[in-house]
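Friendly challenge for the regulars: who can give me the structure tokens for this chain first? No prize, just bragging rights.
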Amino acid sequence: MKIALFSAHRFDRQSFDTANAALAEPHDIHYIEARLDAHSAILASDCSAVCAFVNDRVDAATLNILAGQGTRLIALRSAGFNHVDLPAAARLGLVVARVPAYSPDAIAEHTVAMILSLNRKIHKAYARGREGNFALDGLLGFDLRGRTVGIVGTGKIGLNVARIMRGFDCTVIAHDPFPDQTGLAEVGGTYVDWPELLERSDIISLHCPLTPATHHLVDATAIAAMKPDVMLINTSRGGVVDSRALIEGLKSGQLGHVGLDVYEEEGDLFFTDLSDQAIQDDIFARLLTFPNVLVTGHQAFFTREALSAIADTTLANVTAFERSGAALHPVSVEKLA
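First reply, four minutes later:
Bragging rights claimed.
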């Protein structure tokens, strides 16, 4: 099957070429550096499948163009699908498939790396050391042992974070509208309701999908209900957090540490070298000014194992669809609930 792979980076070419070469019947992959949207969709004019990344715009306008050109499958190389207009895809008869789990370890370990870096000021100490400054003032951290960690979302990633934090002898509490009682109990955590998680947690880590129910889940009201000086980590989706409320929480001191691997308007920022330009997003630029904020550019997934799994699963979706008309991991409108 001919595939148009948008938002193609060098690492995509390497991982997909390797995975494709291993297939008995390799696909015809065309790598397109441009992000997918209504303007670039024409580049997939002769492709039955389109492979989209997290910041591609797979809205109704884009889908209409793709369907009119003969595209039949939207193969997402991500677990999240909030960037896809699923009702529009269903109306147009387009199948949408995703990679439901590629490396929960990668994102969980990055989450814990952010916790440790923020707590022990590793990023600040590194920058100082490069300038020959080895003073300890401003680098004071706290022991993780005995702290309470609140996990929001207990899928595979959330449970992995819970397991790792239990290894630090932390108390783990969690909230999820679809609880995995057995899984959380096995790692030594307990479920609580949303208000209790906000009230008790010293560290809050977000691992939920972005849906209408979770959009701006962390808003001004939620931040006000948190412990003063709380640490907030978001490696899920940027839209789960209200960025303006985040700034106010940082200014007031309610938020003591913030780690962001995602940002709600990251599409024009992440996966791009902007080092020779002024940041045009004023809210994001303001976040970067806080000394207790650590930002990584949607990097949590970025391990060799994860890239390999993403490529393998994406191509498996395409192969299954080509043979049977059904993908291995389809996404339906019901998933939006």
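The first strand starts at residue 2 and ends at 5. The chain is about 35% helix and 15% strand. Your move, everyone else.
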